[in-house]
């Protein structure tokens, strides 16, 4: 195992611990709303952007989004179905409830957050792992999907999930999404389509509501 691979093996627990600390420290120092946002900025800039740039380089980061071809016709069809399943859940269940109490400002802020968060998360949890562990199904696909789900315990520790099942259900859904998006990225050799699906799914929950409570 080389240095880049070792870094990605140890990354999920280190990321989760450091972001857990950041969210708690920042919410105490600057308040829950600002602290929550700055906690995500720490996650996005250090973990989702800087680490892939170090491990893949600028060309590798750009290349992760470029390949638009699926492996063959059947995976393209099945991947499209997989990408639609979370969106049916998001826009069929979460979005109608969220939009009923959302202002235009919340809608715009939610769109901006989705456009920032989704591609950066796809770059780290799908693009970087699949690039560096291109011959390991376990470490390139399954392991980061689990890490993607568990990391959400950090922001959930300061703003809990109020849906049925609490943090456990949120993590379980996140792992499932990681497996779905990871499979599509694995088959398509690209994180372009998973980024689009991730943006739409994030937007369906109108996450901007957290900052206007």
Number of helices: 8
Q: How would you characterize the largest beta sheet? A: none
Helix content: over 70%
Q: What's the overall average pLDDT, rounded?
A: 93
Q: How large is the radius of gyration?
A: 17 Å
Give your account of this protein's structure.
The structure is a single chain. By secondary structure, the protein is an all-alpha fold. The protein is built from eight helices and no strands.
Write the layout of secondary structure elements.
Blueprint: H1 3-30, H2 32-63, H3 73-99, H4 104-132, H5 137-151, H6 153-156, H7 166-188, H8 192-204
Helix pairs in contact: 1-2, 1-5, 2-4, 3-7, 3-8, 4-5, 4-7, 4-8, 5-7, 7-8
Outline of the structure:
This protein has 213 residues and is mostly helical. 80% of the residues lie in helices and 0% in strands.
Which structural traits does this protein have?
213 residues; 8 helices; globular
């Amino acid at each position: 195992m080389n240095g880049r691979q070792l870094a990605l093996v140890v990354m999920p627990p280190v990321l989760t611990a450091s972001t857990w600390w950041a969210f708690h420290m920042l919410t105490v120092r600057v308040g829950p709303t600002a602290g929550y946002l700055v906690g995500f900025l720490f996650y996005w800039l250090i973990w989702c952007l800087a680490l892939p740039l170090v491990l893949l380089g600028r060309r590798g980061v750009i290349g992760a989004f470029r390949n638009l071809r699926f492996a063959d016709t059947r995976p393209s069809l099945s991947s499209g179905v997989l990408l639609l399943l979370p969106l049916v859940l998001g826009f069929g269940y979460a979005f109608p409830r969220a939009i009923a109490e959302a202002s235009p400002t919340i809608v715009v802020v939610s769109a901006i957050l989705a456009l920032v968060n989704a591609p950066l998360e796809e770059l780290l949890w799908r693009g970087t792992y699949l690039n560096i562990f291109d011959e390991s199904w376990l470490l390139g696909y399954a392991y980061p999907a689990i890490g993607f789900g568990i990391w959400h315990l950090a922001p959930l520790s300061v703003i809990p999930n109020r849906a049925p099942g609490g943090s456990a259900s949120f993590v379980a859904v996140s792992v499932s999404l990681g497996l779905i998006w990871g499979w599509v990225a694995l088959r398509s050799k690209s994180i372009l389509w998973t980024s689009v699906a991730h943006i739409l799914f994030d937007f369906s929950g109108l996450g901007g509501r957290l900052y206007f409570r």
